[in-house]
From TrEMBL:
This is Methyltransferase domain-containing protein. It comes from Planobispora rosea. InterPro entries: Methyltransf_25, SAM-dependent_MTases_sf. Gene3D superfamilies: Vaccinia Virus protein VP39. It comes from the Bacteria. Residues 47-137 form the Methyltransferase domain.
Length: 264
């Protein structure tokens, strides 16, 4: 399937490279790393990092001893990721993975579901992940939470702007976020709908993890992240809250994990 021109134009601005490496985005990064390190099979295992961007997660996975192949639909991302030692990177679409059946130990979808506005496409991407992973292997997918836009526009101070406010509340109603000036839609999940999409893709028993909790909305969150000891305490605090059902939607992002339980 062809990549939307708006999506390509946005990511060719190279905004994604620093998103998880700087500022409060580091909380999402470190919490994703924390959950995955507890759930992934032991290295060396084969990991398919689908929609892996410029390799922010592939880099630490390789350092941990995993064999990582990164797929991404953005040529600039693939070019950057391919420069990372030990990372194999190529163009690819989450809905049509260029991977043989049952050929990897884990499939990560840490971005693709954001940009698949149609449920059928999201289920197709998850089903492709299930097809590619070995029995007993892990599928992990990140989603943006439905209320994240309202929370974020307040944090950023742009909520008083009518266009920003209307877009955030429209996303709460139907999940489609049309950010002013961004040019392409993002899909924001209700946390309770994600396990159903996993199940329809043949992935039952999904477990959900809130990544940032309420801490991404704290004004001094960067001070906590800059200080190694305070950062450790912050990550420990969110780990203790990560699966509390009533708090899942407070996080900006949620990570959902399931294992392929059947034979190929």
């Amino acid at each position: 399937m062809a990549l939307a021109r708006e999506l390509l134009t946005y990511y060719e601005q190279d905004r994604e490279h620093s998103r998880l490496r700087e500022g409060r985005g580091r909380l999402e990064f470190w919490r994703t790393q924390d959950v995955l390190r507890r759930m992934l099979p032991a290295a060396p295992a084969r990991v398919l990092d689908v929609g892996g961007g410029t390799g922010v997660h592939a880099e630490w996975l390789v350092a941990d001893g995993y064999e990582v192949e990164l797929l991404d639909p953005i040529p600039l991302h693939v070019e950057r990721a391919a420069k990372l030692a030990g990372v194999t990177a190529r163009l690819g679409d989450a809905r049509h993975l260029p991977a043989p059946d049952a050929s990897v130990d884990a499939v990560l979808l840490l971005g693709p579901l954001y940009h698949l506005a149609e449920r059928v496409d999201r289920v197709r991407a998850l089903a492709e992940a299930r097809r590619a992973v070995r029995p007993g292997g892990l599928v992990a997918a990140a989603t943006i939470n439905r209320c994240a836009a309202v929370h974020d526009t307040i944090y950023l101070g742009v909520y008083p702007q009518e266009r920003q406010r209307q877009a955030a509340h429209a996303a709460m109603r139907d999940g489609i976020m049309l950010s002013p000036g961004q040019g392409f839609p993002a899909y924001l999940h209700d946390p309770d709908e994600v396990p159903g999409e996993f199940a329809d893709a043949g992935l039952c028993g999904a477990e959900r993890y809130g990544l940032e909790g309420a801490f991404w909305l704290y004004g001094d969150v960067n001070d906590w992240l800059d200080d190694p000891e305070r950062r450790r305490l912050l990550l420990d605090a969110q780990r203790s809250l990560e699966c509390v059902p009533s708090l899942l939607g407070v996080s900006g992002h949620m990570l959902t994990i399931a294992r392929r339980l059947d034979a190929p």
